[in-house]
Amino acid sequence: MSSWLGAWVLLIGLALPCPAAWANGNYSHVWVATDSLQYLPAGDLRSLLSQPDLVEILRNGAMYPDGGYAVDDGYGETSHWEPFHLTYLQWIQTNYSQPWSQEAAQHIAFLMGMATHGMTDQLYDGMYLQRHEHYDENRSNATPYGVDGSTDVCFAAAKGPMEVPVSWVPADDLAPLYATLDGYQVDPDTIRLGHSLVAFAITHATTEAADPAIVANYMTIYPWACGNQDNLDAAGSPPTCGPAVASYWQVLWARLNGDTAFDTPLLDTFFTNRSSWNQALDATNPESWVSFAMPHGLDPSSLGPDSVVVTRKGGAVHPVTVKVFYGSNSHLVNVKPVGDWEADAEYTVTVGLPLNDWKGVPLATSYTFTFGTLPPPIVETVETVEAIEEVIEPGAEEIEAVETTEAVEAVDAVEPVADVIEAGGDVGNTPDVVAVDTAPVVGKSSSGCQAQRTGGSAHPGMLLIGLMLVVVAAATRLRRPGRVDHNARSSV
Question: Within the chain, which residues score under 70 in pLDDT?
């Protein structure tokens, strides 16, 4: 082995997480940061983060927290969590003013990347790896790089090679912030070294992903975890994280611009197979869980029996256990049924007071969302029927003269909206049936890691049949995408 290759392998070993760590690898972190851009609405934040030079800085921020693990320094763990993100945010507010300069925009992009890393780890650990624990016989130590490093390789194999971001890290600015948060001292040169080392994890994932034998071996060892990395139906997989991450960016952007109220919508909700329908019944299987991400990191000790209540349609309460997965100041909440969900039932989840964020700010609004254990409904509306009648009433002679594309447009104008089932109704009768699990995850690591429409024309004699098929398809488009205490964390 050449001295250069030996040094490279040593650096890989330093940069990769320990085998017992949980969470995404850094290929996944950087991929999610870039993917999340598409979920931002048009506006100032999207315009800022989409600038090519700032995309590179965003990608650097997405790698940054794991640099602390690469050099065995505690700054890495702190960097995963909202208290440090807000400390950095306040530093930006203190040192810059609106309109944000390009220099300020660089720090904002780095902050958003850092927040991406922390949020993605929570979603991945709290939902995806919980399912891995259920389905896979092997656990974290079955390969030299653990489940997180191995699944990162499998995801790289699915998505293709990734270029390592051109390095950018504001080490001199970040180092003093750790002391202001909790008195922790870290040298800027340590931060620079950690950031340079962790980039090798991306090189490692891309290199191993190019070897089919290595990928096949990881697939054998972790058949579920490696086999579902690119599966949108697997809650917490990297491709499912983008909507929540983009929503969290908007929360941080609002806070950066002076809005600190705890009243923004949930970041996202998560169900089996991306659908709020056909929820699994079996309470012993994590597929039965309903999960959601809060806009602020939480104080789990503030949860009372009425903070999260699940009621069946009609008002009957179903007992649940509520788990703020990583404890203080984390965002992901898993709702687990106590006893199986009932078949062919519709439920409403209500999130409300008492509930505070980790800074003691009380929730200013309640949230509701629905799910069901029955198939998605087929909705026929009066408007849809009227649209059909308008097309077919003139008589067969006129129908023969109508182009298929015009018929599709007529239906599209009144097509049922998929979001009609999003909001739950008022819920009454909510006795104390919530078991609140506020214990942190012990021994786990935080991070350490549409419907298609076919246009065209058809033979006039087939128009009526085609029109009816379009209406049926439109009426069934209601499968909606559902989209550690910190002392216990070590990471990727």
Answer: 1-23, 380-492
Tokens of 473: 């398809």
Q: Which two tokens stand for residue 173?
A: 């600015």
State the distance between the two ends of the chain, measured CA to CA, in whole angstroms: 27
Residue 388 burial (CB count, 10 A): 19
Question: Model confidence over 387-413: pLDDT tens digits?
Answer: 545 554 444 444 343 344 443 343 343
Give the three-state DSSP class for 312: strand
The β-bridge relationship of strands 367-372 and 346-351 is: antiparallel
Closest CA to 123 of 286, 280, 235: 235
Those residues with Cβ within 8 angstroms of residue 5's Cβ, 6 or more apart along the chain or in another chain: none
Structural domains of the chain ordered from first start: 3-259 (no CATH), 268-372 (2.60.40.1220), 380-415+451-483 (no CATH)
The rounded distance, in Å, linking the Cα atoms of 193 and 204 is 18
Strand partners, 130: none
- Over residues 20-67, the pLDDT tens digits come to 344 679 999 999 999 999 999 999 999 999 999 999 999 999 999 999
- How far is Cα 391 from Cα 70, in angstroms, rounded to an integer? 66
d(CA 77, CA 104): 25
Nearest to 63 by CA among 13, 123, 117: 117
Helix (H) or strand (E) segment spanning residue 177: helix 171-182
Rounded alpha-carbon distances, angstroms, from residue 335 to 291, 368, 437:
6, 13, 10
What torsion, rounded to 10 degrees, do the Cα atoms 217, 223, 228, 233 define? 170
pTM score, whole prediction: 0.77
Rg (CA), the chain: 25
**H helices, E strands: number in the chain:** 20, 8
Q: 290: buried, middle or exposed (CB in 10 Å: 19+, 13-18, 0-12)?
A: buried
Angle 328-448-108 from CA coordinates, rounded to 5°:
75
- Report H helices in 16-165: 26-35, 44-49, 52-63, 67-70, 75-78, 82-95, 102-123, 129-135, 146-159
Give the residue from 316, 339, 64 showing the smallest Cα distance to 175.
Answer: 64
State how far the Cα of 155 lies from the Cα of 202, in Å rounded to an integer. Answer: 11
Pairing of strands 320-324, 434-437: parallel
* φ and ψ at residue 322, rounded to 5 degrees: -110, 130
Burial state string for 393-427 with b = 16 or more CB within 10 A and e = fewer than 16: eeeeeebeebebeebbebbeebbbebeebeebeeb
Nearest to 462, CA basis, from 389, 400, 383, 380: 400
